[in-house]
Specification:
The chain is an alpha+beta fold and 235 residues long. Helices cover 51% and strands 9% of the residues. Helix 7 links the parallel strand 2 and strand 3.
Length: 235
């Protein structure tokens, strides 16, 4: 036991040189912190390793993120309860705005009248299909296909969308594959990436014209405030 202290001191100094903190050295050697301080005080304070920096950062920010996530969840749940049950008219107006924001529109240089909706959000697809049903669009006039990067799980995405809309993958049109550019750093990767669902309506010229008219009616019906005035902020 005579040589125990010199051996412990040597080990403490080795640990300090590789970036260990006082507390870590104390925990590993089972000695007093004052002894560790005495043994290694002449050594420069080590810079934490990237792994150590990550641990320190997590210890600092994890409580904040947990609190933020709880607050966000409470806000989302409260907002969802504010919606309640939609009337047919509310769904109708929502659908018009949804399509005008995300669907194809007739343009002067491309006057073809089409009703095509493309989106990656399953909630958007669900609301859109409910809107088409409200408009009495025959299910047989609705066609589906998938648009996705070729490097993704194409078959899995096709199954996912088919299950969402209640169809068989055999009923879907040919999937559009986006070419993969290895120089591009894509964020839409992983198990949750399922590309976009393309929803086309056949025999849609009349519906296309009505959608354009409905949106024009909504735009005209919105009350015009005086310059500089502000609304009440109430929903």
């Amino acid at each position: 036991m005579v040589h125990a202290k010199p051996q412990l001191k040597a080990r403490a100094r080795r640990l300090r040189r590789v970036g260990r903190t006082y507390d870590e050295i104390v925990a590993e050697l089972g000695v007093a912190k004052s002894s560790v301080s005495l043994w290694v005080r002449d050594l420069p304070k080590p810079r934490p390793s990237p792994e150590r920096m990550h641990v320190m950062s997590e210890a600092r920010w994890a409580p904040y993120r947990a609190r933020r996530d709880r607050e966000r969840t409470r806000a989302l749940e409260a907002a969802k309860r504010e919606i309640g049950t939609l009337t047919d008219r509310e769904l109708f107006l929502i659908g018009v705005g949804l399509y005008w924001a995300e669907g194809t529109k007739r343009k002067a240089h491309q006057p073809r009248e089409k009703v095509t909706f493309v989106n990656s959000d399953p909630g958007m697809i669900t609301v859109y299909l409910a809107w088409l049903a409200l408009l009495d669009v025959p299910p047989g006039d609705v066609r589906f296909s998938v648009m996705i990067h070729e490097s993704a799980d194409v078959a899995g995405a096709e199954r996912y969308w088919a299950e969402l809309v209640g169809r068989d993958t055999a009923d879907f049109g040919k999937t559009t594959l986006k070419k993969h550019n290895p120089k591009t750093v894509r964020k839409n990767v992983g198990a949750d990436y399922r590309g976009c669902l393309v929803v086309r309506v056949l025999r849609c010229a009349g519906l296309c014209r009505r959608i354009e008219g409905w949106w024009s009616g909504i735009a005209i019906a919105v009350p015009r405030s005086l310059p500089g005035s502000h609304g009440s902020g109430k929903v």
